[in-house]
Specification:
Blueprint lengths: L1 E4 L6 H5 L4 E6 L2 H16 L2 H4 L2 E5 L5 H8 L9 E6 L6 H12 L5 E8 L6 H9 L1 E5 L7 H11 L3 E2 L1 H11 L3 H14 L5 E2 L1 H4 L7 H13 L3 H12 L5 H30 L4 H8 L4 H11 L4 H20 L4 H18 L5
Parallel strand pairs: 1-6, 2-5, 2-6, 3-4, 4-5, 7-8
Length: 349
């Protein structure tokens, strides 16, 4: 009996414990590992199951003995459960032992096997398709990623803000493996911290300069000088020499000017009733999320604020070319000025 479940939406009671044997598999090892941990946690939270529960690798030399214990009557009124991980590594002999168990499994026991990248023609797949239940974890829907990220942090004893979740998705895209790796890195670097904010992850997630400028302008628009300077520092600290830092400052200023010019242009063209699709074509924006981010940023500035900021950017360009002040210092002072403008008129739209 075969089945399919998108995401991790299978039911422990309905899909696993109602069968003597269940195979849960996916192409992605992180999905399988995550699902095994979710099932393990659910079982341990149930008093009727946790005293009759075992978990081991499918290639363990103790598999035969564990399958024999699985056939014994459970303690109390519970159910005996054996969870096997790394099912893709099971031997031919191990598959034979599972076949023997399935053919004489009592109604009070359940075997659940988790396997990654399992071939359709493998012995285990053929056996479970014929004599057990097969659940394939489908691709995680995009609208499930925020809860996936939040739950992964909760599993590590941490709370994460919506701002961090959005930043991770913006930087890493809908790449589960990259997201899982980043979560692990963040958790390790902040072992003693329970609440994780944007300032805690900026230095730990690889990201393009272009994206960091988007995030920098978001913080400028909120008047958040401290986090704006932290984002700037993270970008400039990649430089390996003074000349490289000056080149980086010039590039950042260019991207800031381009973004504020686009914001001013959008507000001006919106007053002329130009549609989003037409603006995207004129501005060279290829993706809908770019337009959504631009619209969100534009709501945080009035047209007068944007004109004032463009004047500040021009003043900085002149100062960088005509004074001895370091480019980095000039850019930091510019952020002070722009955050001040944003803070004094944050509600003007």
């Amino acid at each position: 009996m075969a089945g399919r479940s998108g995401g991790e939406s299978f039911s422990l009671e309905r899909d696993i414990l109602s069968n003597p044997g269940t195979l849960v598999h996916s192409r992605e090892s992180w999905r399988v590992s995550r699902a095994a941990d979710v099932v393990t946690r659910s079982i341990k939270e149930n008093e009727g199951y946790r005293f009759n529960f075992e978990r081991m690798e499918a290639f363990s030399p103790d598999l035969g003995e564990a399958l024999q214990r699985l056939k014994m009557l459970p303690l109390g009124a519970g159910r005996r459960i054996l969870l096997l991980t790394e099912g893709e590594s099971i031997s031919r002999d191990g598959v034979g032992k599972i076949r023997s168990y399935l053919r004489s499994a009592p109604p009070t026991s359940s075997l659940v096997i988790f396997a990654a990248d399992l071939k359709k023609g493998s012995l285990l797949m053929k056996l479970m398709s014929a004599e057990g239940r097969v659940i394939e974890l489908g691709d995680l829907p995009k609208n499930k990623y925020p809860s996936f990220i939040r739950d992964a942090f909760v599993d590590r004893g941490k709370n994460v803000s919506a701002q961090v979740i959005r930043y991770m998705l913006d930087c890493l895209g809908y790449d589960p493996a990259a997201i899982s790796s980043a979560i692990e890195r963040i958790a390790l670097c902040h072992e003693d911290k329970k609440d994780i904010g944007l300032e805690d992850v900026i230095d730990l997630i690889p990201v393009s300069i272009e994206h960091n400028v988007f995030e920098l302008i978001d913080q400028i628009a909120s008047g958040n000088l401290g986090l704006s300077l932290k984002i700037l520092e993270a970008m400039l600290n990649r430089s390996i020499s003074q000349s490289a830092e000056e080149e980086m400052v010039a590039r950042i200023v260019h991207l800031i000017v381009r973004q504020f010019r686009m914001l001013l242009r959008y507000r001006s063209m919106r007053s002329q009733r130009v549609g989003d699709k037409e603006f995207m074509e004129m501005a060279g924006l290829r993706y809908g999320f770019q337009m959504d981010r631009l619209k969100e940023q534009s709501r945080r500035f009035s047209e007068d604020q944007l004109i004032t900021i463009m004047g500040k950017l021009l003043d900085m360009d002149i100062a960088m070319k005509s004074t001895a002040m370091s480019p980095r210092c000039s850019l930091e002072l510019l952020l002070h000025d722009i955050c001040g403008i944003s803070a004094t008129g944050a509600h003007a739209c």
